[in-house]
Structure prediction request, 456 residues.
Amino acid sequence: MKRFNRGIANGVILGAIGAGGIVARAAPITWTFGGTITYVRDDLNLLGGQVTVGVPYSGLFTFASDTPDALPDDPTEGWYSGALVHIDGRVGPFGLAGPNGLVNEILIRDGLNDRITVRGSANFTATDMVFQVFLGTGDARTLVTDGLPSSVPLLSDFELASFRIFDPTETVPLSLIGSLESLVPEPASCVLALAASTLLLCRRRRSPARCGALLAVATVALNPFADAAPIVVLDDKSDFAEFPHTVIDFETWGDGQPLQLGEREFVNVPPEWYAESGITITARVPSEGPWIRNARGSAAFDAAHAFGGSPPNVLFTAPLVGFETGILRFDFLQPINAFGLFVINRTDGTSATLELFDETDALLGSVRLDAALRDGISLGSPYGTAYDWEYGFIGGYSRDRMIAYAMLREEFTQVDDLYLAVIAEPVTIVLTAISVVMFTWHRRRGRWHCGVCHCA
Prediction:
C-alpha cells in the first residue's frame, strides 16, 4: 500500500512538473518588462495629466520563437515579421493591449552595432498606437547571431534600453518614452523548478509542515503574475468555459422568469435587477436606462446578434432608439477578476471600449472592439436602414487585483451575454495540486509502517 501511494504521488507530481516543462519548451516565449516614463508628449490631453515623467510602467510580450527570418540570406539582419502573439501592459492607469494592427515585428541586428527591437501595434487610451522595446549597443560583441534569442539578454550589456509608445504616422500627437529598467523571462518554469527542488528536499526531511511552507513561499514569491498589473484581453466567451462563471443573457427578469417582449418593445432595468447574479447595472444618466429591448429586425442584424449573443433581447442606454453616446456601469457585488460581454456596434459611431477598475477606482486596463477583436461586420439594422454593424466579444482578466466595477463607453451600441468569473492562475493551480498530493502522501506514510496500519 505504501509503494502504491508513493507511486501515485510521484507520478502526479512529476506529471505536473513535466507539463510545466513542456510549456517552457514550447514555441511561445514571454518576457516581462518595466521601468519609468522619461518623456511625455500629449498635445490633445488624451492622458488627462495622469501620465507624467517618473510614472512607472510594466507589462509583458510573448513571441513565437519558431517564427522564420524574412531575411534568411543576410547573416547580420534578422526580421521576424508577425512574431508577436501577445502584448499586455500598463502605463500609470492606462492599459496597453495588442498586437492588433499592421505593425508586428522583431528586428535583430548582429553587425557593427548590435540591436534588438520589439515593435507591435497595440491599443492604448482607446487609440491604436505602436509599442516598442529597444536594446542597442555601439559594438558587435553583445549578440552572436541574428536569430531570435532563446533567453533574455542582460540589460547591462546594452548602452541603450528604452520603452516607447507612439504613432508612426503622427496622426495622434501622443508619444511616451521610458527607461527600460527590467527585462526578465516569464518565471512559470522557475516556479515549477523550485517546486521540484522542494519535493526532493521534503523526501529527505520528511516534514509535511516544512514542505507546505516552502511551497507556499514558491507560490507567493515566484508566481509569474504576482506583480503584474496589466489585464489579459479575453476575446471569446470560451475563455470562461473552464472556470465557474455566471452568464446574464437578458432573456429573463431579475427573478429568473422568462422576459418576453414584443418586437422593438423595451423595459427599464432597475440597478438591482440582477443583484442575485452578483451585479448591478446603471447608465450614465438614470433617465437613460439602462433598458432591455427586443432587438429583432433585419436578417443581417439578427445573424450578427446570434453569432455571440442570445437573441432577441439586448441591453442599451437610450430609451427610444438605443443609439447615442452613453456609459453603462457594471458594479460587482462579489469578488471577480474576469469580466466580458458581447457587443454589437454601429460602425459610424465610436467603437465600444470596456474599462475595468479596482475598489480604489484605479483603472486596471481597457479593451476596445477594434479590428483585432472584431468577429465580423454585418449590413442592416433592427430598423431596416443601411447601417453597418461590427460585433465581437470584449473582456478582460485582472491578474493581481479584483475587479470592483466596469464601464462600457459606447456609441450606437447594444450589449448581450455578460460573463463574470474568478479565474485562477495556472501556476497557482499546479502548486496547489502538488501541495495536496504531498500532504496526502506524507499523511499516508505516517499511517502505514512495515505493513501495519496505525490509523485511528
About this structure: The chain has five helices and 26 strands. Residues 1-26, 218-229, 319-324, 447-456 have pLDDT under 50 and may be disordered. The radius of gyration is 26 Å.
